[in-house]
Structures are given as C-alpha cells and as structure tokens.
C-alpha cells in the first residue's frame, strides 16, 4: 500500500512538473525532485528513469550531489517571482497581502541565490 502511495505521489509530481514546462510561473525542477524522492521509495526503476532522463536528470543529479541550482534556473525563478510581484502591485492587492507575498518571495529568492551553481 505504501509503495502505491509513493508511486501515485511521484506521478502527480511528474505531471505537475510537465505542466511547469509549458506554463510560466510553475516550476518544473522542484516537482521532479519530489518525484525522484517518491520514486526512490516506490520504484527504483522509475527513479533511475527520471534521474537518467536527458532533460530532467541533470538538475536532479546536481541537487542531490551538490545542492546546486543552475544559473539559468536561478535567473528564471527569480525573474518569475519578480513578475508575479509586479502583477500583484498592478492589481493593487492590499498592503498586508503584498507584505506577506514580498516576505515569502524574498525568502525563497535568498535560498535560491545562495545555492551553488
């Protein structure tokens, strides 16, 4: 039963990651990292497939081996966060919402930018 839960969780993460490939603002790599973790618990074969994948494998291996995020991924992530915040400003969200959003986005940006390349 536990194996099935991990497999389901892994496939959901892969699905969200694939949506993130075409949908700006939805990250792909974090979902693939979650999928790799879930597959490691549910199916070593699926984990190997994901880690060896030509597109999704390198960021997973970089993260697992060195805690690294590529420079391109960092620029994309921080740019998307800035764009989302700019949209929130244009929509004139309430001050408390902007403050909460800015705090969360800043914390995530700091985390991303302090990882090795």
Explained architecture:
The chain has helices at 2-22, 29-42, 44-52, 57-66, 71-90, 95-113. It has 117 residues and is mainly α. It has 2 domains: 2-66, no CATH class; 71-113, no CATH class. Helix 1 packs antiparallel against helix 2 (29-42), helix 3 (44-52) packs across helix 4 and helix 5 (71-90) runs antiparallel to helix 6 (95-113).
Features:
117 residues; mainly alpha; 6 helices
What topology does this entry show?
Blueprint: H1 2-22, H2 29-42, H3 44-52, H4 57-66, H5 71-90, H6 95-113
Helix pairs in contact: 1-2, 2-3, 3-4, 5-6
Strand content: under 5%
Which secondary-structure class do the elements indicate? mainly alpha
Global Rg: 16 Å
The separation of the N and C termini measures 38 Å
Order of helices and strands: HHHHHH
Helix amount: over 70%
- What is the overall number of helices? 6
The whole-number mean of residue pLDDT values reads 91
- Uncertain regions spanning at least 5 consecutive residues: none
How many E-type strands?
0
The geometry reads as globular
Number of domains: 2
Sketch the major β-sheet: none
